[in-house]
Amino acid sequence: MRTARFIGSWVAGLIALTLAVTLFVQWLRFALAAAEGGSTPLFLWMAFGVNLLVWTLIGGGRLGDDTLRGLAARRAARRARGRRRVRLATEEGAAAEEQVLVRSRAAGGPGRARPGGGSAGGGGTGPLEEAAEAESGTAAGTATAAAAEQISMAVIIPAHNEEPVIDGAIASALRLFNRWDIYVVSDSSHDATADIAAETGVNVLELLSNRGKAGAIEAVITEFDLTENYDAVLILDADTELDERYVEGARRQLSEQGVAAVAGFVVAEWKPQERTLVGRLISAYRDRLYWMLQYLMRFGQTWRFTSVTFIVPGFASVYRSDVLKRLDINPKGLVIEDFNMTFEVHHKRLGRISMRPDTRAYCQDPFTMRDYVKQVRRWTLGFWQTVRRHGVWPSLFWFALFFYILEVLLVAVLLIATVLLGVFMLVPELTGGAVLGLGFYAAGYDAVEAVLPLATIAVGLFIPDYVLTCVMATIRRRPSYLVYGLFFLPMRVIDSFLTLRTIPQAWTASSDGRWTSPTREAGNL
């Protein structure tokens, strides 16, 4: 059965890849023929974006840099081990030259004596065995790993009415941490969140008033004096579960010079049997979005020569304690904390932000479209509020952020405008041309038809976006993405609308940071 599923997944991946290549080639032919190439760059830009291309190329540079550094470290480790063996062998030879022959009184025969007394055959650990045991200490990479192991880390799990999922988050943390290093803060929950947490034996702080996530984080850090008792603090959402290698990866990154925070690598859960059709659509769309943002953008943005990522996701990320002390975690008026904390690191020049795929964590995406819209609105509003709060300062961070914001705004406007034009061109088809009897409508229709016919709009918008879905279906080997991908373009339109809608709200609306929990489903991710 496993073999059949394995073969089936690879066959599905090959089919999706073939479909992606075929669609893209046919789309290029159609676009060039229909619009004489004029709209082709526009549609390509709306689908892929310049930022994504630039950071993908920079990420390729980082991949090469990381590879070369890894090879150099391994060579240095081998040379260090070789020098260690030569030195030990030399020392052993020198020690042998100092030894003398003595006559055993018991046996009357010659024997070898050790400089410190005792018989040569009396057991113990020889020099080469000692060298083998000490080899790990001579390797630079292992020395770094040893230093990383000494980094103490606390886990904070802020929660508000998270009864269905809190036990899963705690269980995943208990696999990697001692229970006394885990701190759950129940932010005025009205369900059994605090009781469930207390039954696991971890530390629990229950707040009587709803302070919001940022306020809850601030309260638990202060109550238990975490930044004084630990080297680093991991902030974990109540619906998130950590990969078994998360702590190892986070400590390894924190041990590098200048790293202020480690951004968790988010992986969307995929449990289609436990979700409705809408829930599966949201999970599939988020999986594509996370993959593109992390592998094609943030990987390059978190290179040691760049460090310009604008978000350390609050779902599972680690901050050094000495950095956390200097952050304003809970400023007034912001709906979310993670954008602000990231901007604080950059604005106060507290160090660089690191992100690698070895710090994976699994999150639960919204189950309903209503919760999805609320979450995206909250995220985008929080981003614009953070931009408003911190303003502009001269830095590489803001140089990169400016072009990101510019492209996001232009793509959002053009995507919505193009969709509206498509609807405008579609109405005559649906009404049998009746609306063309209106003079102003007919004039507008003819003007748009001359530049962007309905077929060009439909194919130009949909095919590039769907090609991305085919690529994701190939990577994930999930053929169902080919079905859900038919509806990803409307999801992008929703995201674009919320991006534009929340801009004025960021300057007119204020928030106390209080949260309302979305629909949750129990179970391990």
Give the SSE map.
Layout lengths: L1 H34 L4 H9 L1 H49 L2 E3 L6 E3 L14 H12 L1 H10 L3 E7 L6 H9 L7 E6 L5 H7 L3 E5 L4 H13 L1 H4 L2 E5 L4 E2 L3 H9 L4 E4 L2 E4 L8 H25 L14 E5 H4 L13 H10 L4 E3 L5 E4 L5 H22 L5 H35 L8 H13 L2 H23 L4 H4 L3 H21 L17
Parallel strand pairs: 3-4, 3-6, 4-5, 8-11, 9-12
Antiparallel strand pairs: 1-2, 6-10, 7-12, 8-10
Q: What number of structural domains do the residues give?
A: 2
**In whole angstroms, how far apart are the ends?**
23 Å
CATH topology heading of the largest domain: Spore Coat Polysaccharide Biosynthesis Protein SpsA, Chain A
Mean of residue pLDDT values = 83
Write structural notes for this entry:
With 525 residues, the protein is an alpha/beta fold. It has two domains: 2-49 and 404-508, no CATH class; 144-394, Spore Coat Polysaccharide Biosynthesis Protein SpsA, Chain A, CATH 3.90.550.10. It is built from 19 helices and twelve strands. It has helices at residues 2-35, 40-48, 50-98, 127-138, 140-149, 166-174, 193-199, 212-224, 226-229, 246-254, 277-301, 321-324, 338-347, 369-390, 396-430, 439-451, 454-476, 481-484, 488-508; strands at 101-103, 110-112, 153-159, 182-187, 203-207, 232-236, 241-242, 259-262, 265-268, 316-320, 352-354, 360-363. The chain has a seven-stranded mixed sheet with strand order 5-4-3-6-10-8-11, sandwiched between helices. The radius of gyration is 30 Å and the shape is globular. Mean pLDDT is 83; it is low at 95-140.
